[in-house]
Amino acid sequence: NTVAVCRRIKDFLKNVKNNLPQDLKIAIPMDNSEFILNSIRNLSRTLMIAGILVVLVTLLFLRKALASVIVSLSIPFSLIIAFIFLFINGWTINVVSLMSLAIAIGMVVDNAIVVLENISRHIDSGEKPEEASVFGATEVGTAITASTLTTLAMFLPLIFVTGLAGIMFKQLGSIISITLLGSLFIALTLTPMLCSRWIKPSGGSQKNKTLSKFFIWGEKVFNTIENKYERILSFALSNKKKILFPLIFVFLASLILIKFIGTELMPDTDTGDIDIRFSLSENARLEESEKTALKVAEFYKKFVPEADNYYAFVGESKKGIGVALGMDEGANVGESGVKLVSKDKRKRRAKEIANLLRRKTKEIPGIEKISVIATTPMKQVLMGGGKQIEVEIIGHDLEETNELAEKVKKIMKGTKGAVDIRVSRKKPRFEVWIKVDRQKAARLGVNVAAVAQVLRSNYYGFEASKFRDAGDDFDIFVQLKEKERNTMDNIGDITVPSISGKLVKLKNIAKIEDAQGPVEIERKNRERIVKVGCDTYKRPLGDVKKDVEEGLSKLDIPPGITVDFGGEVEEQRKAFGDLFLLLIVGIVLVYMIMVSQFESLKTPFIIFFSIPFAFIGVIWALFITHTSLNLMSFMALIMLMGVVVNNAIVLVDYTNILRARGLSLTEAVKQAGKHRLRPVLMTAFTTLLGMLPLAVSRGWGAEMWQPFGITAIGGLLVSTFVTLVLVPVVYTIAFRKEEAVKT
């Protein structure tokens, strides 16, 4: 747990600080727990705001304070069930779990709204509260069960998503599913019971005058909407072609906008952390790297007034910790980072500052490779520490693959939006080759292993013994002096012990040559590989990748060499592929659930008419807000497939009930639309307003979940209208022959 570990480290540092000199200060330039905690606080506020908005909507539509309380009770009870589920599974309260609850909070009241509205209607018609509660809940019980199952059909398969996306979606799908099941249980048990005790017939006077005025205003607004809807529905039923063809045209025209919507794996989040990693030539000394790091630090002072603190380190660690963390190490390698003040105290985003530093640091002489990173730890994990776009060149011949890598690098340099272009294979480095003459060595009683051991001991050092003083042990570490280690002039005079114990000079048994050789040879599936990567700036990842791909298609690739994409763009392809498959599976499951409910193969297709038109809202919402299609917006799209059919299910189910009671096809459709308008609008608005805080939030980590809220709101707005108008039209077309036979 990142937060727990960071908290313990801070506590430890407080204790250490007391034993340090007064003039020695400790600064923490990077603390991921701050971003996590601030994101959780922001998401918690979002959750609370969403809950308040949902309660206000129920109060406005139901016009009864007690009715609003009954519906609102679904929220805490459903959340309690979710927290019990978290506890049983040993999961923590984190960004993903809180986001799951924020997504679900607008939907947990939907079932209770439908049940309560139906019970209230029966009570207003003169039935006793107890009878109305039983009959009202039973009447819509099948419909809300089916609608909940359709939503679950879209969320539950998320737990089977593989790869890096599955890390996040497994928890998200599980929590939302268990929360919705809890809300269904509450709607069919607690809600009817409370209705039988608290709900009275409408028309009574309100004691609170302010609340009474609010209810009167709300009822006037709804009556206006209801009257206009009845006229629109009557016109639509009388002019089916005038409704169908324009909607189909709008749908097809909206598809054109897809090519203007960018794609990426995860949205960028401003954490306030910027890392600059640079490499000098392979033969550069540590002192040169140190000077370069100090020059970078000067840029922070000069161009980044928003800097809170900064750090730098060069060289390599004794135990190779940097390599373990996916970073380069060596005398020619360095890293510098800056921690910015919080978002509310600065006007510029971290990405803007990072781009400025990218331009400035390129002016520093001697830097051969540089990467400027300003992204979240989560995204770095999803990217595996690599670049957003990586072209993987696999082949045995080092010269041919190096030549091809330079051509790919040139393509990326000419691609708009591609920054921090880097070839993974390092340039050859100066080496000293010691070729032991085995025959000479054997005559003098020296073996190759002894030569290697002596060289390692001299240059890397070894623990010779221990020095004990007053009960304390101190390691005695032996190696050549630094001055002698940094020159090869006297390497031939190093002596190696022979079998007889005599010391033999290295130059007497070996040939010493200056040479160049590869620093490392990277492999993938046991094949040699070189990666050419880049990040993107001010242009969608998918667009940059498309241009690079077009450039690669023009290259003449030698036989025996394969070229493919990797990095974030490859993870995106895998994740989108999994989610698209999940979308298809979910739609099939939804169809099967509706077939079993309606006992008809035709009725589910009528309901499915609302799904394609939800895409219109999604496309326009992403296009207008300049939001990319990423994992979060794709996730919202999957959610919509389950949610948009819910209102259509309730509408079609009640139409079937009215027809079974003897009403004509047209009259049943009109009456169902009128009686179900309030619950349809209520469930749509509660879900929509539950998403609104996600879409407009500007706090820590908000960039990650904004695409979800924007996508959901766009799809819900359009699909609600389609459900109320298009579904009744399609229903009458589908069943007109059946109606004609009856008459």
Describe this structure in words.
The chain is α+β, with helices and mostly antiparallel strands. Among the domains are: 31-265 and 572-742, Up-down Bundle (Multidrug efflux transporter AcrB transmembrane fold); 429-517, Multidrug efflux transporter AcrB TolC docking domain, DN and DC subdomains (2-Layer Sandwich), CATH 3.30.2090.10. 61% of the residues lie in helices and 13% in strands. It is built from 26 helices and 15 strands. The strands form five sheets. Strands 5, 6, 13, 14 and 15 form a five-stranded antiparallel beta sheet that branches. It has a four-stranded antiparallel beta sheet with strand order 2-3-1-4, with helices on one face. A two-stranded antiparallel sheet has the order 7-12. Helix 2 (32-62) packs antiparallel against helix 3. It is elongated and about 115 Å long. The N and C termini lie far apart (69 Å).
